[in-house]
Design a protein that fits this description.
- The structure is a homodimer.
- In chain A, helix 1 runs antiparallel to helix 6 (173-204) and helix 3 packs antiparallel against helix 4.
- Helix content of chain A is 83%, strand content 0%.
- Chain A has helices at residues 2-17, 28-55, 61-93, 101-125, 131-166, 173-204.
- Chain A has a single domain, classed as Four Helix Bundle (Hemerythrin (Met), subunit A) (Up-down Bundle), CATH 1.20.120.1770.
- By secondary structure, chain A is mostly helical.
- The radius of gyration of chain A is 18 Å and the shape is globular.
- Chains A, B: InterPro entries: CYB561/CYBRD1-like, Cyt_b561/ferric_Rdtase_TM.
- Chains A, B: One of its GO terms (molecular function) is transmembrane ascorbate ferrireductase activity.
- Chains A, B: This is ascorbate ferrireductase (transmembrane).
Chain lengths: 205, 205
Amino acid sequence: MFGILATVLMLIWLLHYREGLDLDSSNPYRVFNVHPFLMFFGFIFLVGEAMMAYKTVAADRPIQKYVHMFLNLSALVLGIVGIHATFKFHDKMNILDMYSLHSWIGIGAFCLFILQWLFGFSLFVFPRASVVTRTRLSHWHVLGGRVLLYMAICTALTGLMQKFTFMQLTNNRESYLINFLALSILLFGITVDLSVSLGRYTSHN
Amino acid sequence: MFGILATVLMLIWLLHYREGLDLDSSNPYRVFNVHPFLMFFGFIFLVGEAMMAYKTVAADRPIQKYVHMFLNLSALVLGIVGIHATFKFHDKMNILDMYSLHSWIGIGAFCLFILQWLFGFSLFVFPRASVVTRTRLSHWHVLGGRVLLYMAICTALTGLMQKFTFMQLTNNRESYLINFLALSILLFGITVDLSVSLGRYTSHN
């Protein structure tokens, strides 16, 4: 729900208030706009859905695993395209890369996500380790996933905050839209965490 | 460790690069500087210590509870002073209150924290409910605490990002200092979450 709300708000912002989305456009702002859209919808939203697909949707375990793996893989690919968009924008505008807090946390979260995906892929899709080892490692996979989700949320919020301060918005319609967009991204992250954690409490009892 | 690192970096930033800290100063920037310091050291750091005091420090249960309650109460009081500092700064500078994403998330997290504290205080310090109800409610208290911790971290990072963009820093010493400060705040939050969660896994097994 919050994820869909955030996607809709994001599209209203980018299409109505900003110049729209086009990765191959000659207008650098249209190239840039691909970045927030893909990083939220492609990356955060799909990762959240992948987490919930594994824990809260009733299905056979192997199906859950493949859906979880496939959604995370799609998120990874879309995330790479999204990061590419912002570097392309910086190139066109002659802006320095990777100086801000947003970029530091973002690139850190993304690299750790790739490691987490490879770790999950090698361990769970092709199981060779013993059951005890896998249970112990699965705790780390779950905790790591949660930490990465919150790191991605932090990155999204710092990114929107940066754009917001850069455009020197105060109390106008666009500023409210961006604030509500950011709030729904945060609430999306929180509800994913809660539903996955409550799913775990239920299965324990 | 990360918490102490972040406190040291914060003090270097505010005392060496900025004008220092003084809530009653006539220099509005010195009043403002009280805000990041108290919100991190007074609020996030003490709350994190309170969470770890309850879960990871070996002590009698009642002592753990009182330390947890008392640290959270101190955090609440210091947080109120910290928020007061920023409103005082806005008054002096004629800046609008509460328009930015940082302020929205921050005030939301703080109000929820007060509710969480009252909830915890009424339920655990003066126990009247049955054991089953208390176990169920304690799950919510734990999840709520984690969500609030990450909300507070998000608020801190958006605040630093806002200050960073506002000062138009790029690649200089102060920008690296702020980025490392923000990274250590994030890593402090993550390590608190991990140590509390691993503490729970250990006590389950």
